[in-house]
């Protein structure tokens, strides 16, 4: 389910994303070059950039393939972007992690999970064999959840741990019938 799906907030044209300054809503970018041209699914912030992931081909008048960053004044493409939708983003230790239905970052095969070091995308091992729909960064690392059963070729059963440069299964994982109990 998208985080945002609007084109107007209050009386401001916002094109799927807006910011609240404490008094009023504002578009991200100048009129006519504001917002993102498509569906947004994920946001992450590193203290300087706001990263936006989803299914789109442009942001703020620039070409951007499913992921883009905002520095407070301008939109920037992130390399050649990703070849399909981004469902989840997480930032930790100077690295942005993206998960989704994509399989390539430019010409690099990444299989549903990739990392951005500030200037280039790279793969996390051989990636996942299915979509990544959730990422979470915590003190013990970064975890991915989704419709995959392997991470880096190892059985992962819908949940995996992402190290800075590798993927590991996270225990026995989950099956489709796992139910949470109180």
Verbal overview:
There is one protein chain. It contains no helices and 21 strands. The protein has a domain at 79-169. It has strands spanning 8-9, 12-13, 18-20, 25-27, 36-45, 50-59, 62-63, 67-70, 75-77, 86-92, 95-100, 104-105, 108-109, 113-116, 121-123, 132-138, 141-146, 150-151, 154-155, 159-162, 167-169. The radius of gyration is 17 Å and the shape is elongated.
Largest sheet: 5 strands, antiparallel
- Helical segment count: 0
User: Which descriptor suits the 3D outline?
Assistant: elongated
Q: Unreliable segments (pLDDT under 50, ≥5 consecutive)?
A: 164-182
**N/C terminus separation:** 26 Å
User: How big is the Rg?
Assistant: 17 Å
Number of strands: 21
The arrangement of helices and strands along the chain is: EEEEEEEEEEEEEEEEEEEEE
**Roughly what is the average pLDDT, rounded to an integer?**
81
Strand residue percentage:
over 45%
Structural class: mainly beta
Helix content: under 10%
Provide a quick synopsis of the model.
The chain is an all-beta fold and 182 residues long. 0% of the residues lie in helices and 48% in strands.
Helix and strand arrangement:
Layout: E1 8-9, E2 12-13, E3 18-20, E4 25-27, E5 36-45, E6 50-59, E7 62-63, E8 67-70, E9 75-77, E10 86-92, E11 95-100, E12 104-105, E13 108-109, E14 113-116, E15 121-123, E16 132-138, E17 141-146, E18 150-151, E19 154-155, E20 159-162, E21 167-169
Antiparallel strand pairs: 1-2, 3-4, 5-6, 6-7, 6-8, 8-9, 10-11, 11-14, 12-13, 14-15, 16-17, 17-20, 18-19, 20-21
């Amino acid at each position: 389910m998208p985080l945002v799906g609007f084109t107007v907030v209050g009386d401001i044209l916002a094109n799927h994303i807006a910011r609240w300054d404490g008094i009023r809503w504002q578009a991200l970018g100048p009129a006519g070059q504001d917002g993102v041209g498509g569906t947004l699914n994920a946001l992450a912030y590193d203290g300087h950039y706001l990263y936006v992931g989803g299914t789109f081909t442009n942001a703020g008048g620039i070409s951007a393939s499913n992921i883009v960053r905002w520095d407070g004044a301008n939109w920037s493409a992130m390399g050649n972007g990703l070849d399909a939708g981004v469902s989840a983003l997480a930032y930790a230790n100077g690295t942005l992690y993206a998960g989704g239905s994509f399989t390539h970052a430019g010409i690099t095969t990444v299989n549903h999970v990739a990392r951005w070091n500030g200037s280039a995308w790279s793969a996390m091992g051989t990636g996942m064999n299915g979509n990544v729909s959730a990422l979470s960064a915590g003190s013990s690392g970064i975890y991915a959840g989704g419709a995959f059963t392997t991470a880096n070729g190892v059985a992962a059963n819908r949940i995996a741990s992402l190290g800075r440069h590798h993927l590991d299964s996270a225990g026995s994982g989950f099956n489709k019938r796992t139910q949470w109990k109180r």
